[in-house]
Amino acid sequence: MTEAMTRLVLQLALIITAARLGGYLFSRLRLPAVLGELVAGMVIGPYALGGLIPFHHEPLFALMQGGIPLSPELYGIATVASILLLFLSGLETDLAAFLRYSAVGSLVGIGGLIAAFGLGDLCAVWFGLAENFMDPTALFLGTISTATSVGITARILTEKRKMSSPEGVSILAGAVLDDVLGIVILAIVVGMTKVAGTAGHINWGQIGWIATKAIGFWLVATALGLLLARRITAVFKKFKSPDIITAFCFGLALFLAGLSEMAGLAMIIGAYITGLALSRTDLAHELQERLHGVYTLLVPVFFCTMGMLVDFSAMRGIFVFGLFFSLIAVAAKVIGCGLPAYLTKFNLRGSLRIGLGMLPRGEVALIVAGIGLTAGVITQQVFGVAIMMTLFTTLLAPPLLIQAFKGGTGLRRPEKEPGRETSSIEIELPSPDIAEFLRNRFIRALRREEFYVNRLHHAALAYQVRKDDILFMLVQENSTLRITAAEQHQRVARLMLLEELLSLSDLLDATQKMKSLQSMGSDLVSDLF
User: What is the value of pTM for the model shown?
Assistant: First the structure.
């Protein structure tokens, strides 16, 4: 165990340093940091330089049993990082917008899944890798093509502050459904493959049970999370410690991620459901702030280890087919997901954003390909095709997605969000110092009433104030204080600010009296002497 832990510590030292350096270099080149982290993983992985770094009598990044390039310990840390990533993605999602665009997201997910599976299956037959459309190799290539890596897209949306945009919530809604249906398709394909190998009959009952369990868990967990989130956080808040509350909430995300895996879904689905449920509570921004440091340390580890999965030698001899399959995978998602978006609420720009957001395949495709390889259904060369397609779509999606989000709205008709009509209160004070004094008093009063006040940007005096359903913004610009809130929350903000203004007025009156007393004292001293 000591040797395994020593190896893990040295691996993490190299991974964290390489990932941050790769992200920094790519950021300087005006490219997404996630690309730099993926490329860093490819460079230091066991198939590249990592296989040359010595550790005792073998490489530091040695291939494990079964040809897996990650040790169980390192894979475990990467798994926790992926859970953290999707938990925070859920916290950043605008739940009202998510629910409003869930129907569009469902159509996007289904459209992309059908197009990707059909074209992937057809591609295998066309190039002679499979005899017919029901051949296990064709079925597995179709399944590999359907997988969407929501983690990569979520990272880009977070970096560009587009998580709560109409396109962002549609992509996430579609990706979650995509993963759920992808698990169901994988179960069906594995069942059909086993039957093909034994000349038996397909156990549709077992496959139906797997599908029912996966979809049922997803629906029930989401509904219960949305209904019980505020009651759960009310219990957590009784501890009066932000550190304990943060630990409990992330522990809840880990617990639901584990249950999600036991139900036949990916762990990241459970983590995202937890974050989404907590996104409408007053703890959302507090959790984001307190987990930000862990996020910046662990999440690059996840993307770096994804890059380490790339085996360059497996791509030899299949470059032409791999390139064609990769292009087909791109077209399937862009058209299959973009077309339903275009036929509903989005214009051409918004539809392209959604299609590109559903483009990266990532770890899910590699997991599906690994199942096919270990089952003997696909060859090492077909596995290499899966790696090439994953690499191609993963590297292509971030820069294209960033370019696509430049420009105007992606909606055909910009919508006014229901219940979001806001107005502002502006108070002009005699000087910036008095405005700062009143702002600090107002913030202290809010916190005494158990409001969560979070500064949104270190370079600007802008704060988000939340408590249960109440949400408003507080901004100081020179000597002006401005409060922006929905109509139904204006009264609370006005009353609390009025109390502080009256207190400030009393304080100024008392100060004026003190000046008068000082003046009287000076006159008395002058008379005496």
Answer: 0.69
